[in-house]
Amino acid sequence: MSKTKIVFHCGECGYQSHRWLGRCPDCEAWNSFAEEQVVSDSSARTAPGLMQPPHRGPGMSEPVPISKIETSPQSRFTTGFSEFDRVLGGGVVPGSVVLIGGDPGIGKSTLVLQAFNHLAETGKTVLYVSGEESPAQIKLRADRMGVASLHLLMISETCFETILPHIESLRPMAMVIDSIQTLYTSEAGSIPGSVTQVREVASRLMFYAKRTDLAVFIVGHVTKEGMIAGPRVLEHIVDTVLYLEGDKSHTYRILRGVKNRFGATDEIGLFEMKGAGLSEVANPSQFFLSERPLEATGSVVVASIEGTRPILIELQSLVSQSYIGMARRMALGVDPNRVTLLLAILEKRAGLHLADQDVFVNVVSGIKVQEPAIDLGILMAIASSFKEKPIDPRMVVMGEVGLAGEIRGIQHTYARVKEAEKMGFKRCLLPKRNEEMLRREGMIFETMDLVGVSYLSEALEWIGARDALN
Predict the structure, then answer these.
(1) Is 184 helix (H, G, I), strand (E, B) or coil?
(2) Torsions phi, psi for 218 (to 5 deg)
(3) φ, ψ dihedrals at 164, nearest 5°
(4) Coil, strand or helix: which one is 75?
(5) Do 368 and 408 belong together in one domain?
(6) Which residues partner with 6 through β-bridges?
(7) Which residues span the domain enclosing 28?
(8) pLDDT level of residue 367 (50, 70, 90 thresholds)
(9) Beta strands 449-453 and 427-431: pairing type?
(10) In the prediction, which pLDDT does 228 show?
């Protein structure tokens, strides 16, 4: 016999309570609980809110030693969108479930529509399920982007039980759900988009994908804090979580992986939003340095590693006299706490008095950089603005700075320097340890002058330097 009970779910984290709470005890969100009816049927389900797990194959019904489990190599297939495939780890794994999140209007639907149009043009069947737009509305956007493959099939449905027969009859290689918040199953007694429905539909999609090797791509909405809307269990269910980031005032978009069971999580894909959709940016360094001023103070070029790819980025700093009781510290694109720590090092180890100065640090184009290899670049930009002396525009800076003012070694030095040389830079300011390692291993650069520094005071001597390069 089925039973109906009332539960309250937190819309932010999925916490469940038998009574309404003003504040979630798990994620501490206010006014996030919603009432839902849960129908439990012991004869039909193994647990409330979960479907019966699919039948397992032979040999998996009983515990077996891991050394005796037979595996088959999972061959990836590419979508034809190289930047998209890069973030996925080299292509799409059959049977994987990928969650794509991002702010409203950032281009999530455009990205999947273009990517799977490339896949459909190779003759593979792709099913696009939209719960937010009608096929006619999608066709208007597809005409603008030149999407017209006969193997890209559209359907506008929101009920999982209605979609399933189409999947069974078409047997597509990949399927897109746009978006998960609009889908519902009739076996869960709650409204579409609720915690129960999102968890239930995602679980069923995951079970079906693993059983049939269907690659499922799920588009998810995000909250005002930038997190995937719905319970956090949604991110645990899927194999890969991708975020499409970008500032709407800029044309670029960055696809970043935050979870990937089949590849690295530090890869990024760079796109440019145009009238005909998203286009891949093959040379990110040139893209980010295209508008760099050459004689401005407080401007420096740093070499960052994003996944396996080196990218040259411009850092800018502005230091000005503060006329209020407490000087302001503002950082965009870098960790503000890291900038505060570096300012303390600059005052203590270099003797620059910045207590009465407002300090602003910005990563040009709005990209976010987290690695410590840009520490030296941040300090050089701040000192350049404070002293009103520009940094040589032909020089790239890299290095981690310790609390004692020492310049510590970094990883992937050769790839960073090679990228800078390719972009036309003539001098590289880097840790002494890395400079000695490159020379010891015989890595000689034809047009790049390597300058190794051990302490912050040595690096600051290059501010304002305009000597001729050999």
Answers:
(1) strand
(2) -115, 125
(3) -55, -45
(4) coil
(5) yes
(6) 37
(7) 3-40
(8) confident
(9) parallel
(10) 58
